[in-house]
Amino acid sequence: MSSKELKVLLVEDSQEDSLLLVRELVRGGYKLEHQRVETAEGMRRALEASKLDVVISDYSMPSFDAPGALQVLHESGQDLPFIIVSGKIGEDLAVAAMKSGASDYLMKGNLARLVPVVERELREAEERRTHRQTQEKVRRGKAEWESVFDAVSDLIIITDAEGVISRCNGRVTSYFPGGYDAVLGKRIDEIFFGAEQPEGQVFRFLHSQGEADEDVRFPNLSGWYNVASYPMRAEGNDRGFVHIIKDITKRREVEEEKRTSDRELLTLYAVAFRLQYTKGVEKVMGDLLFQLHNMLQMDFSCIHLFEGEKLKMRASLGVSPAFEKAMKALPGDAEWSRLAQSGRPFLGEEPDARFPDKAKKAAAAMGLHSWCTVPLKIGQEVMGVMTVGTLSGRSYSDRDVFLLCSIAGQLAVLIDNYSLYDKMKEKAEELYKSKMELKDNLQKVKRANIELGRLNTAKNNFIGIASHELKTPITSIMGGAEFLLKYSGIPMTPEQHNILASVYEGTVQLRKLVEDLLSISRIETQGPLAQKKPANLIQVCREVQNLFVLPLSERHITVRIDGEETDVPVDEAFVTLAIRNLMENAIKFTPDGGEVRLTGRVMKHARLKELAPTLRQFYTPFPNNVATAESYYLLQVSDNGIGIPADERVRIFDKFYGVGDIAHHSSGETAFMSKGSGLGLSIVRGIMDAHEGVVWVEEAAGGGSTFSLLFPLHN
């Protein structure tokens, strides 16, 4: 037999009596957890400290007694069995204790009843706890249902069989002033219908599944409502009804709005469908008016368009011949025309002074009542007006006006499209003629380009052959003239010497011209340089310097070459020619004792933006004309000579263009006195174009000029 746990509080001053009670309970099969107190304060602490099952108390103690213990237990609020065990107690005291709340009493000399009494009291205490919990659940459930009842958005009213209201939820009081007092005890028909007698049995109709509820209106309330009534049984045999009144005003408004919106959308769709016809604007306007009459229940309609200053009727439906004649053509100064030109809708309930006199009489004769005129316009341009009217007493609302304006806007776009279509047809015919002329011109240009290419090839062949054939006699003339001047020792007069020197200089210039023509021909023939090889441009500059050792030493001109010795992919022969032409120009325009500087460095792609303002003077599409690369090599040739005027810096790269007269082409006295061919810088530019690079010139710091060559470095 398993032991039952039991927590006991012993209110006893005798240790021996306590042990007897404990032994009896253990013998009864309880696993006991107990504590003993003998004062009121000790009992309070024990009740607060632990959860107990039963209290066993002596009736009389030196400083405490059973009635006092009962009082402490009641103050704690705990419902515990309280059993009195005493050595001697009168029957009257025992009865008084039982009335005060004691569960039972026993004599210390007869403890055989102790265990059964404890078991009975524990059982009854558990039943009391269960009953209290059930009552609390019922109370809480009732409170929750009361809250739900009042929180429901519908009006819930309970009546007896005669229709007298006995109860309602809080929602009802928000519909009737005066709160519950204005509703309870009143007949339900009275508060909803007042003195009027309701049609049918609104609050007698018993709702059953599958039957549709009827929407009703009440004289004492605004809006629409749905009523459902259900029978109920109250206490006894009394019958009553539960009435659920649902406010469906918003739903009805939404449904009405939807019906209106559907009608408007259907009208717009039908109108849009009609407006897709391509049978001419007159046909479209007639179809549109027919559609408006069907969809919007119109009786009269017409459309006017401006032709110059006059307003002319272009379509009508339902109007009398007299009205159509009176409104057929209206002058620009007529009131109707001025109102139409304003671009705003105007409307009325009867024909009034805004109508022309004859049209007013004709409209009245037709029975025109409500009418509305809306503009046909695109943006601020008014093309005309559309007028609709009815025989009924219906008035046009703002919504009606908005819908008619939307339809009129679509019609205006279509009319404008027809006008544009006619213009486009004319333009298309003109364009076709221009296209045929352009085709003929393209054929002529194509033939001209073929001829130009042939002539250019012939020119390059001629230049190559002529230059090659000229080099041999020029070399012979130069050699003979130089021998006679410097090595023959033949006595000559000053005039003879000057003539021979002039012959020599002319031959030198002629040889330079032939070489430049050959270079130009090679560049134009070869095009972009597909076969590039890495070359050290600083080393190339040193090699070019060696070609000018004699004139540099005679004129005491210093040449400084410095920079990053990076391999650059180039055609070395072309680059050598470019550097040679730039160095020759630098020497020519630098005074005796001057200085020429050649520098080179690698530059990142990001720095192209800094060069853009300067380079776009020389190359409009820069940097799109330069090959894309992560970095570039910048080679610069600078001198401290006479410089180049700012307005001529771009033009010097043109063929055969020379700056100034011959006196400005050198400040030296021993060499480079002749004016060039005007092809040197043009050759440099052609070489840079072939390398997908650029060349430009700027004023050097301290005077003179700086020529810059920018080569892409392909990584």
List the keywords.
715 residues; alpha+beta; 19 helices; five-stranded parallel sheet; flat; 47% helix
Structural account:
The chain is of the alpha+beta class. The protein has 19 helices and 23 strands. The strands form five sheets. It has a six-stranded antiparallel beta sheet with strand order 13-12-11-16-15-14. Strand 15 and strand 16 form a beta hairpin. Helix 2 packs parallel to helix 3, helix 14 packs parallel to helix 19 and helix 17 packs antiparallel against helix 19. The longest helix has 89 residues. The radius of gyration is 60 Å and the shape is flat.
Summarize the SSE layout with pairings.
Elements: E1 4-11, H1 15-27, E2 30-37, H2 40-49, E3 54-57, H3 66-76, E4 82-86, H4 91-100, E5 104-107, H5 114-151, E6 155-160, E7 165-168, H6 170-173, H7 188-193, E8 215-216, E9 225-233, E10 239-247, H8 249-274, H9 281-296, E11 300-307, E12 310-317, H10 321-326, E13 329-330, H11 335-341, E14 346-348, H12 357-366, E15 371-378, E16 381-389, H13 398-486, H14 494-526, E17 533-536, H15 537-546, H16 549-555, E18 558-563, E19 567-570, H17 572-589, E20 595-604, H18 608-615, E21 631-639, H19 680-690, E22 694-699, E23 705-713
Parallel strand pairs: 1-2, 1-3, 3-4, 4-5, 18-20
Antiparallel strand pairs: 6-7, 6-10, 8-9, 9-10, 11-12, 11-16, 12-13, 14-15, 15-16, 17-19, 20-21, 21-23, 22-23
